[in-house]
């Protein structure tokens, strides 16, 4: 049975920036799930500074170039929206 594939795409939170102990929440999740019998393959595709516009521009090409995922569709895509996309209260442009 082929394992399911989960693509996690977003910013530095997905990448694990700042978590020197365990590599961020996505890496912690991957390590935890590896203990399960039917654990999905987790692809953490985070880039520091990316916002929704950049993620939208690259999400499809990210999984199409991965060896296991080439010519396939991942079973799940988790979009992690971080601080780069958080609106600031009181600013007309939301930045």
Automatic annotation (TrEMBL):
InterPro entries: SGNH_hydro (IPR013830), SGNH_hydro_sf (IPR036514). Pfam families: Lipase_GDSL_2 (PF13472). Residues 8-92 form the SGNH hydrolase-type esterase domain. Gene3D superfamilies: SGNH hydrolase. This is SGNH hydrolase-type esterase domain-containing protein.
């Amino acid at each position: 049975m082929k394992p399911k594939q989960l693509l996690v795409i977003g910013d530095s939170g997905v990448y694990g920036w700042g978590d020197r102990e365990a590599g961020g929440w996505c890496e912690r999740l991957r390590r935890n799930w590896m203990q399960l019998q039917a654990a999905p393959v987790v692809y953490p595709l985070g880039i520091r500074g990316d916002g929704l516009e950049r993620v939208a521009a690259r999400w499809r090409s990210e999984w199409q170039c991965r060896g296991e995922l080439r010519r396939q569709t991942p079973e799940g895509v988790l979009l992690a929206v971080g601080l780069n996309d958080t609106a600031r209260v009181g600013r007309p442009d939301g930045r």
